[in-house]
Amino acid sequence: MNDRPRALHLKACRFGVTVLKVFWWTTLVAVIALAAALAAVTAGLWPIGPWLGCTAVVAVVETIVFWTGIVTVYLSSVQLGLKWRVIGVLCGWIPVANLIALRRIICIVEREVIFETAKEQLNASRAQQRVCATRYPILLVHGVFFRDSNLLNYWGRVPAELERNGATVLYGNHQSAASVPDSARELAERIRGIVAETGCGKVNVIAHSKGGLDLRYAIARYGIGPLVASLTTINTPHRGCGFADYLLGHIPAAAQQRVASAYNAAARRLGDRAPDFMAAVHDLTQAGCMRLNAAMGDLDEPPAGIVCRSVGSRLVKATHGKFPLNFTYPLVAWFDGPNDGLVARDSFPWGERFIWLEPAGRRGISHADMIDLNRENIEGFDVREFYVQLVAELKTHGL
């Protein structure tokens, strides 16, 4: 780690890792030295007093060094996550296991510093180019069961990365759960409002999951095509989710209504005006999407005058997806084959260009990974840079 990071939390991570490395090696050397000295004491070659004094000094110093390092990385690291923080606490008092856990923590945080420092340098090297400074602003549209929030951004670290590279980023601000026509109506009003208020003329839309269906419907049925320069759908179920049809057909109606009522009540408290859990779910089934596609008429021929792209990804193993995707992945695989934990590959393609993401390795990329929901650096896939390049491509096309 020769290159020094600029961000304060990365500086803290770097400091913490350095301190923990010092602790690791000095503890190892001290234990060996004290063990050799103890052998000399046992053989009567050295008095016990000095040995006890040295042991006490080493224990105090190493304790201070350890807690300085571990508290620093616990407070500053993003990639350490809850899992390894808990493992570190649980293994802290177990000999050998604590050293193994500590070594793993050091490796995770060290990789984080190296990766994030490289990103800092990349952004600094192209700062003057403003590669994401598109002609029209970027409108990010969330999927179902989420809201746009200042407290927890649905898109993770992506918006800040786009803005850092010159983009103007806006949000759909629509309800978390509603039918596709209702969500489309909200988004159409939102886009008209943006254009009227800013005078931007058009927007470039990037829509995740159900948001892609919502925007397609808004363009097809609510006349906002002239206000949309491009639409990029991210892991959108354009042909529906087969496992959703199965679940709705096998879960008792009473149970479905209980879940729907609980969700709708919670969503209202969080700000949704008229949430409709069941309408949103039914529009994501294969039967629902077949009906919607018939109404939109753009599945095979995307709307003229709009750059239309779609993106899909594959999760390789259920265990590599966070809950609930680790549960739904095998269900989707059983019904529809390769998928991202929710949506099958065959449901993703739409528009004039389809981008399929399947990095090498055994992990893959989940439905949630595509919006950086867990803020995780995935080996072989830099989600922030992926979006930077998506937007940079729009700029090169004058959009």
Automatic annotation (TrEMBL):
Name of the protein in question: Triacylglycerol lipase
SUPFAM superfamilies in the record: alpha/beta-Hydrolases (SSF53474)
Keywords of the record: Hydrolase, Membrane, Transmembrane, Transmembrane helix
Gene Ontology MF annotations: triacylglycerol lipase activity
Enzyme nomenclature, EC number: 3.1.1.3
Keyword Hydrolase tagged: yes
InterPro entries in UniProt: AB_hydrolase_fold
Source species: Bifidobacterium pullorum subsp. gallinarum
Transmembrane segments: 21-42, 48-75, 87-106
Presence of keyword Hydrolase: yes
